[in-house]
User: Fold this.
Amino acid sequence: MDMLEGNRKSHVEHGALYFWTATINGWKHLMSEDTMKMEVIQSLQWLVHRKLITVYAFVIMPNHLHLIWRVNANNGRESPQGSLLKFTAHQFRKILYNTNQEALKAYEVVANNKSHEFWQRDSLAVLLYNRPFLLQKITYIHNNPVAKHWQLSESPEAYRFSSASFYETGIDEFGILTHIGDAY
Assistant:
């Protein structure tokens, strides 16, 4: 298995199953609008269709996203998680530049390689070492939108930007999911 992120908390190995979380810089609610969530979906679609990742569960929240996934291969020299974060950051910048330049200012940084930073550094990757832990994380992901502090939908299945309805109906609206039963 290839190591992709050194000893950081975002470290993942090819072929292993992970619960992975990426958070918007400053916990801002950048992904409240469906337009922004769709940028994440499109990036996941691109990575899945190229077989660089396998996604088993997901939720896109206003300020973070959770995935249960397997990283299969790099995107050239770049990790799939790096590609996901880089692509979405470019898209977020483009959208805000065209629609809300004032909001774009909240993500400005002084750096040699970028002018804006949308994602917090060092995403969290937790190795899913057994089936009960995996199922616990799927339940957590699916219940995130109905949690008391969010209340984004009446039920987990009613929240569009989650895999909960896929596990209820078998319908994968975005074409990115593999059933968790196929993971083991």
